[in-house]
Amino acid sequence: MGNSALKAHLETAQKTGVFQLTGKGLTEFPEDLQKLTSNLRTIDLSNNKIELLPPLIGKFSFLKSLILNNNKLTALPEELCKLKKLETLHLNGNHLRQLPAAFGQLSALKTLSLSGNQLRTVPTQLCGLRHLDVVDLSKNQIQNVPDTVGELQAIELNLNQNQISQISVQISHCPRLKVLRLEENCLELSMLPQSILSDSQISLLAVEGNLFEIKKLRELEGYDKYMERFTATKKKFA
């Protein structure tokens, strides 16, 4: 892509606060963007070949939305964690194995999508995020859900298509968790904490495609309580 094309994009971004350049085969984050650190509210560089996010990402202090789906990122810089206004972060289809240690400092974050990466566990850093609504960790390599998950503030947690065979009973203590997606994992029925049914806020539990028949779920203690929440929620949205 020529400089003139990039220049046109930059001029538009300066007016709109949105810089979108997708599917252009970019191998690096456009350095010229640093001229717009105080303008930009949204950066979308999806469907490129970016391998590294430079430290200068931390300078976009007004950024609300960062979308880098389908790139080649293997790690994220600590500087990303300085983005105090960031509400939406989409990193689907990269090669991430972990999140920066300071990730919990992204205090405004509401939506986090990390589908199709190489995470092996639910990152503990997520538990510090008080405004998190939706977390998508589907299509990773997560094998178990640790005790720290009980502090997660999210309303929806998507763990579909992982390799989960163990879930901490603490998940039923999540204060705001309403939707838990666990489809296509490696769960035995005995490994599903019954407290999710009997003693949690969860009103939608999706567990198709595991190592048990769905009808067996109905025989578990607490299923009636779960169905009460499920039905009440359905009525609310009907």
From TrEMBL:
SUPFAM superfamilies: L domain-like (SSF52058)
Keyword Metal-binding: no
A GO cellular component annotation in the UniProt record: cytoplasm
SMART domains tied to this protein: LRR_BAC, LRR_TYP
Keyword annotations of the record: Leucine-rich repeat, Repeat
Coiled-coil region list: none
Record's keyword annotation contains Acyltransferase: no
Protein name stated in the entry: Leucine-rich repeat-containing protein 57
